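Team,

Forwarding the record for the chain on the shared tracking sheet. I've put the sequence and predicted structure together so nobody has to dig through attachments.
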Amino acid sequence: MRQTAIDKWHDCINKKFVDPDALDNSIAFFSPFVFKPILGIEEVTKYLNAANIVIANDQFKYTKELVGEGTAFLSFETIINDHYINGVDFLIWNEEHKLTELRVFIRPFKALTTVGQMMSKYL
């Protein structure tokens, strides 16, 4: 049985490594830190692997999932440096179950600042 896009995404989070095969060549990543979308497998993988190092720690967990036809909203929470963080991963995939678009939303602002500073070390 073929893995769904959600299965592939959870594997990437659990393994703390983004498999480029889970991404479509046209992938666009809308980061909360960058004004323009990040495009292409190589650049998107670099950002997502940095996020995995910083955000997907032992405290990280998805709390809710809303999955539709080709889209999903995954609500998450974690704690970094004593800061509670919650956010949403918005995923869009194609008929091959490869991600074509990813948007990440993080709150509160203090958490966004903390994550941005920590991620910059890996980019």
